[in-house]
Queue: 2 jobs
Job 1
Amino acid sequence: MMLLKNSRKAILQLLELIMMTILYEVHDNIYVNMTNRCTCSCTFCVRGKQDSVGDADSLWLEHEPTVEEVVQEFSKIDMNRYNEVVFCGFGEPTERIDDLLKVAALIKSKYNKKIRINTNGQGSLSNGRNIVPEMAGIINSISVSLNTPNEEKYEEIVRSKFGKGAFKAMIEFTKEAKKYLKDVTMTTVSTTISKEDEIKCQQLCDKLGVHYRIRTYQE
Ligand code: SF4
């Protein structure tokens, strides 16, 4: 009986592994899902409302895939179909910055695709070092979630484990990105802030010399 129970558990674990979504499509891009960890708990986070985005069934990971597992997934798809590789997923991709950069470098040299990271901008704070220079030459563009131009509101919205310092760290991260990467964008989610705040976000982005984009809820 115990043997049957253990076998059933092993089969279920195997099925979960097979069904785990590491790569998924959004529009013409291929997205990479390497972690479910995040330093924030944003009030609007899609993870609280649904299990996936794009063409994925679920983006909850049974385990964090190794570099080899991620690269293996790329070999199963036709990369000619995609414009860009985007590290995003159901978590904060810079939580695995070392592995992310290993995957990105391999993918870039093999498929010669543009590579973007979608981030909450707290990666340097979380990793305890300035991670941006490490991206130079590998990452083409970065999209940082600004969310609001207001530091106090930011704390309320993103509920970062770093509390008060998170907003300043995110701005500092963006300034660093501007030094090392060609294409830097800050985003807010449409419908989550007022038109007045969107104007302030535009002004902040102008000051930082980065693009500003108002994105839809599920992007
Ligand atoms: S930073 Fe992104 S993944 Fe993390 S809680 Fe906020 S919306 Fe969700």
Job 2
Amino acid sequence: MTHAGDDRAAVNAAAVLRTVLDHGPVARSVISRLCGLSPAAVSRQTTGLIRRGLLRELREPPGPAASGGIGRPRIPLDLHTGAVGGAVAAGLHIGVPASTFGLVDLRGQVLARRTFPHDGGHSPARIGAELARFLAEFAGGRPLLGAGAALGGRVRPDDGVVVRHEALGWRDRPLARELSEVLGLPVRVDNHARAVAGAEILFGRPEARRSLVHLFIGNVVDAAFGIEGALHRGPNAAAGEVAHLPVPGSTVPCAACGRTGCLQATASDAAVCAEAVRRRIVPDPAIWLLVDAAAAGDPRADRLLRERARAVGRAAALLLDVFDPAVMVVTELSSVLHEGYLDEIREAAVALSHVCADPERIVGPHAGPAVLPEAAAAVLLGPLFSDPSASSGPSVPPDPSVVT
Ligand SMILES: [Zn+2]
């Protein structure tokens, strides 16, 4: 049971934390002005947030400016990203060929990351145990807020259940609970397209908070939508299932639905890799082999990736016309690594779109190649910045003896 005073304190704590996220380092008096809270309320909230390892005071170096001031020096506050005592979150992206682990600070910076190939299957117990080992190695005694996990398929964030993930064969899997049992930490779970959109809203370009569409092109294809800083999920958490969006100009048959020209059948990593093997560009269907081949100067690999980029751009044009977002984020490996493929996506999108004549509105994820671990951690950090009082996880570093 909560009281009106608790609710107000929770709202105030979130306002202070978000103000420091956007404006830090910043003095208490400025926070007070920016949030419209009394100095006493700001002081009370900052004390609590400092105690939890979320904020810290920055000591100004002694110098002419500091000694010349009048009265008590105004000590700026910032999010605690320090190596000693700064809170961190784990980010777990569960992919089909491999998972990615990340250790992420309160500004979304990925401090460490590791790829974990799924040679031995996808059991959450195994993935969780390996993630615990990673955290014991890299968290260095810093307070761990918990873990955010992101993956494809239909995911219900409220109870952390993976409703359906075709490639992993998961149905109604209570993933958050299973991972939490292994890690001994709070775990939140969401679809990876929404996770990237959430990270853009929290840590990315300011216009992403007005409105954004995110298009995720991996082994699976997904989209996510955000308006006024909030992610849209839909009543069944199913918003953004664009796998069978028809791509203008594509005649590729879709084995899943029997029609032709579906986005996933045309442009997913799996589809492009199968085509790359068929054209004898790469020996195995691995997207990084194809991207590496193009980077090494193979014109056939480059041509195939440009064909894919143009198909992605045409699908992006449809979404641009429906939503007219302030920013359109596209996560696709070749364009994240090489700007030329992003230009190809932009050209194809602008050529087809009826509302977007501005190619710069289409961007890659702000975190670049660190997009997946950052986005996964944002699944946990997003709710923390909205309500820090509700996320009072055990700020206890893992005991390395448990997992070694
Ligand atoms: Zn289809």
